[in-house]
Amino acid sequence: MPAPAGRDLGITFGVGAYFIWGLFPAFFGLLAFASPVEVLAERILWTLVVALLLLFAAGRLRELRRIDARTWRLAAAASLALSINWGVYVYGVISEQVVQCALGYFINPLVTVAFGVLIFRERLRRPQWLALALGAIAVVVLTIDYGSPPWIALVLACSFAVYGLVKKVIRLEALPGLAAEGLAAAPFAVIAVVVLALTGNATFGSSGSHTALLMVTGPVTLVPLLLFALAAPRVPLSTMGILQYLTPALQLSWGVLVGHEPMPASRWAGFALIWIALGIFTVDALRRARRPAIAAV
Predict the structure, then answer these.
(1) Distinct helix (H) and strand (E) counts, the chain
(2) Which of 146, 148, 107, 139 is nearest to 261 (CA)?
(3) What's the CA gap between 140 and 158, in Å, rounded?
(4) Are 19 and 245 spatial neighbours (Cβ–Cβ below 8 Å)?
(5) 13 and which of 32, 63, 83, 230 could share a cystine (Cβ 3.0–4.6 Å)?
(6) What DSSP element (H or E) covers 184?
(7) Averaging pLDDT over each range in 103-107, 111-115, 226-230, which range is the top one?
(8) Are the CB atoms for 237 and 29 separated by under 8 Å?
(9) pLDDT, the chain, mean
């Protein structure tokens, strides 16, 4: 168990990571001048550039040469899932559907549990089954409210769950892993940038402010990831599980209070069901986390 001082520092890092992610709508909303495809491509490339520079400064570039073929395949799979997640998120923010983006990250823990059942044949306890059932009912309620399934939320939740599954089996630390994922996606990002430039649809280089904002997507992406990497080994999983709700809560607040996105009663009802499901899921996880500690006393 981490020492109290280390745990407190880890919680600070964790809150910082989730707080920055929660403010992403504010930043990516500034990129509405560019298409989601261009933002995604530039984000991939500049994140890779920053990751490589940090690895170079730390004298760790050689770690990329030691990656075996299987790990590169896993990195490519993680890169695909993350690229889908990033692209859909940017589209959601630019098209002023931040509330759906927030919904996706509220649903994500439930989707991860569902994947555990479907893929790893994990057995769920009754509270977990109840949470999943409430989550499914919430999606039905929101589908009726929106008039169609909340695709942005569902794709965000599923793509990030897939990314998490791949990251569980890939043997790479945070920074080398992100660099490997960036290298896997870089050829496609370069092709997108070139095509946009040749067709006259690129905004990179059109003005100093536009170019700077697109370049900043690199450090903006890496900072919370590095904070998360510093927090994870210092903070119990149960605590990190609670902290993760900070991100969609902030995003929902931004969508409603700043973006003035419509939230009829039926939509609030759907979100309420999700929150009840997450509450049941979290309480069950906390109870199970405390049992070993009590037994060890």
Answers:
(1) 13, 0
(2) 146
(3) 16
(4) no
(5) 230
(6) helix 174-198
(7) 103-107
(8) no
(9) 88
CA separation (Å) from 261 to 202, 247, 269? 29, 18, 16
Q: What is the pLDDT of residues 209-251, one digit of tens each?
A: 999 999 999 999 999 988 887 887 777 766 777 788 889 999 9
CA dihedral (256, 104, 84, 184) positive or negative? positive
**Can you tell me the distance from the alpha carbon of 50 to that of 53, in angstroms, rounded to the nearest whole number?**
5
Report the alpha-carbon distance of residue 174 to residue 177 in Å, rounded.
5
The string over 251-277, giving b where at least 16 C-beta atoms fall within 10 Å of a residue's C-beta and e elsewhere, is: bbbbbbeebebeeeeebeebbebbeeb
Measuring CA to CA, how many Å separate 77 from each of 11, 38, 68? 30, 21, 14
Pick left, alpha or beta for residue 68 (phi over 0 → left; psi -120 to 50 → alpha; otherwise beta): beta
Q: What CA–CA distance (Å, rounded) separates 129 from 123?
A: 10
- Total residues belonging to the chain: 297
The whole-number pLDDT of residue 237 equals 61
Sheet strands (E) in the chain? none
Instruction: Compute the average pLDDT of residues 272-290.
Output: 83
Q: How many CA atoms within 13 Å lie on the side-chain side of 54? A: 17
- CB-CB contact of 68 with 167 (8 Å): no
The region, left, alpha or beta by phi > 0 then psi within -120 to 50, assigned to residue 121 is left
Residue 268 has pLDDT above 60, yes or no: yes
Residue 248's contacts (CB-CB under 8 Å, 6 or more residues apart) are 22, 102, 103, 104, 105, 106
Per-residue pLDDT for 291 more than 80?
no
pLDDT, tens digit (0-9, with 9 covering 90-100), for 121-170: 777 788 888 888 998 899 899 999 889 999 999 999 999 889 888 887 88
